[in-house]
Every structure is written in structure tokens, then in C-alpha cells.
Design a protein that fits this description.
The chain is an alpha/beta fold. It contains twelve helices and 13 strands. Strands 2-8-7-6-5-3-4 form a seven-stranded mixed beta sheet, with helices on both faces. Strands 9-10-13-12 form a four-stranded antiparallel beta sheet, with helices on one face.
């Protein structure tokens, strides 16, 4: 089932209100985004040049600490849909539960998909997928284990969409020498600019050349190129944001504990909790115009992104406080 967070129109249809009334915590997108810089007119009225795209890829290489070939794409989602079409379909294995677009995109490309619970069960697949750290539970797979796994499958896709705060977990410094190994990075989540539609695929030169042919001559917009370059080079903002998010993740856990929820896991951009009744918990928050994420495969799990400012924190704290009172 291709269900996602961010469907605020569905929240309004079910619970009412206008878009401005809602705090959307159903995604793992940073709600305190990178400040938008002024853009030159050419970002809007001219086709992106090859030189500009290459400058963006150099900025990404420095930010991710890699010497691999890089292709900028319209969000990691674009790569998730392209990679399964690089060759003939076969048997794919996905470390699950995880972001459901991986399995859905593989099936749409003709692959037979098996969802497995252990990374050791991925070996032997025509394509294997690991989200690291995982969405929604934050499960981590050691880079050494992933490097070993790459030698046992035809293609390995490591989705690092939530790895910005965990550089020690990233396979980016180790990708590029081996064909069939791909690392995906999302720009929009950590930098809070998901509407920009920017992401990157890291891999072997020949693999990236094949993907580039599929993506076409202008895989990302001029605005994405300009903003992406500036943000990726701004390491002061990155360090301050990592520090802030870690503190706020702990703050969120404290609020959830007082509401009687148990921490299952998460990352610095979202937290996953076990609740007595996830649908009831989501409805309670929705009546306060706070949207959260539940999952069709679990009646108890609820995921929350982090609020963006103190006003949003106060609203969430009040909503969780009334939940705790109702359960007392």
C-alpha cells in the first residue's frame, strides 16, 4: 500500500479546518527549514547549465564526504523509481518494515519483492534495499555490514534519506568503486525544503551514467541548484541544526512518555511510539489540528515529526497533556 505522511488534505477532509490551522507532524521534514537565499533571475528563466549542475554535485560530494559519481535528481523518490528499471527485473528483497515506495516501485518495474526482517536475509537477491537509518523505527545497519552485503547481491540500494545527523552511519565515503552499489541522499528532509524536490544518487561512474540517461539533461531545477549549493556548503547551519534536533528529539520523548506512550525508535527528525490505540491517538491530536502518521500494518504505532517553533511545541504539549489526563 502506497500510503504516506504529508497528506494534510486528507486530514482536513476528515477533521476540518484550513491548511493554516494545522501543524503537520506526519512527515520527517525539518519544520525549521534552511533560510531561502535570494535567487538570480536565471534560476527561473533559463535552463540549468551543465556547469551549474556540476557545481551542485561538487557541493554534494563535499557535504557527504564522497568521491563517488553523483547524480542530482528531483528528490530521492525519483531515484527510487528509476533504479529498478536499470536492468531486467528479478528477485528483490527489502529490509522491512520501511518506506513503502521501495517495494511499490520495484513491483511496478516487474520485480518480485520479498520483504525480510534481517539484513542477513538479503543475500542472493537481484536487488536489495536497506533504508539506513530506517523509516519509521530508526533501525541502524552498520556500514561494514552493508559493504559485506554489497558483495552478495547484484545491486544494493542504501537509502540514507535520514542520515544527515549521523555521518558515521553513512556509506557515502565507501561508494563508487563497486558497480551495483547505490546510496540515496535526500536534501528536502534535513534542510526542510521538501517542495524544492532535490536529492542525490551516489554510485559507480558507469551506473550513474546510465541513470543520467534516464533522468535527462535537466534532472533538477535552477532554483534547486542555487539553493542546494548554498545550503550544502553552510556547515555552521548544519552543525547547529544537528545539535538542535537532537535536543528536541529528547524533548519529544519526554512529552510522549508523560502521555503514556513508549518509545520504539526514530531519528533526529521523527520519533516512533507505541500507543494503546494509534488511530484513537491520531484522532485526538487531529482534533487539536496536529497531524500524525499511523501505519496500516500496526494498530499501535504512531510517528511524529518535530515541531518547528515554540508555539508548535506548546500546542503539541497541550494536546498530549489532555491525552494523559484522559488516560489517568
Amino acid at each position: 500500500m502506497r500510503d504516506h505522511g504529508g497528506n494534510i488534505d486528507g486530514a482536513m477532509a476528515e477533521f476540518g479546518g484550513r491548511a493554516d490551522d494545522w501543524i503537520d507532524l506526519s512527515t520527517g521534514i525539518n519544520r525549521a527549514p534552511y533560510p531561502l537565499p535570494p535567487l538570480p533571475d536565471a534560476a527561473w528563466n533559463a535552463l540549468p547549465t551543465r556547469a551549474a549542475i556540476e557545481a551542485l554535485t561538487r557541493a554534494a560530494a563535499r557535504a557527504y564526504g564522497t568521491s563517488a559519481a553523483i547524480l542530482p535528481v528531483a528528490g530521492a523518490q525519483a531515484a527510487i523509481q528509476m533504479i529498478p528499471r536499470l536492468g531486467p527485473p528479478g528477485q528483490a528483497r527489502v529490509l522491512a518494515p520501511t518506506y513503502n515506495e521501495h517495494a511499490a516501485s520495484l513491483r511496478a518495474a516487474g520485480w518480485k519483492v520479498q520483504e525480510v526482517a534481517s539484513p542477513y536475509a538479503l543475500s542472493g537477491a537481484g536487488m536489495a534495499v536497506v533504508v539506513n537509518p530506517n523509516n519509521p523505527d530508526g533501525r541502524e545497519t552498520a556500514p561494514a555490514r552493508l559493504r559485506d552485503l554489497a558483495g552478495t547481491v547484484d545491486r544494493l540500494v542504501v537509502d540514507e534519506s535520514f542520515a544527515d545527523g549521523r555521518p558515521e552511519l553513512s556509506l557515502a565515503p565507501h561508494v563508487g568503486a563497486r558497480r551495483g552499489l547505490f546510496v540515496l541522499r535526500s536534501f528536502g528532509k534535513f534542510y526542510g525544503l521538501a517542495g524544492l524536490r532535490l536529492g542525490f544518487v551516489l554510485g559507480h561512474t558507469e551506473d550513474i551514467a546510465e541513470l543520467s540517461e534516464m533522468a535527462g539533461p535537466w534532472p533538477v531545477s535552477g532554483a534547486a541548484i542555487e539553493i542546494g549549493q548554498k545550503a550544502l556548503k553552510d556547515m555552521d547551519w548544519v552543525r547547529a541544526t544537528v545539535t538542535r534536533l537532537r535536543a528536541e528529539a529528547a524533548r519529544m520523548d519526554g512529552l510522549a512518555e508523560r502521555a503514556g506512550w513508549g518509545l520504539v525508535g526514530g531519528t533526529d527528525l521523527f520519533r516512533l511510539y507505541r500507543t494503546p490505540d494509534a488511530a484513537a491517538a491520531r484522532a485526538h491530536l487531529a482534533r487539536a489540528r496536529i497531524w500524525s502518521r499511523i501505519f496500516p500494518w500496526s494498530p499501535h504505532l504512531l510517528r511524529l515529526g518535530l515541531p518547528g517553533d515554540e508555539r508548535e511545541w506548546e500546542r503539541l504539549g497541550a494536546a498530549l497533556g489532555t491525552m494523559a489526563e484522559g488516560q489517568a
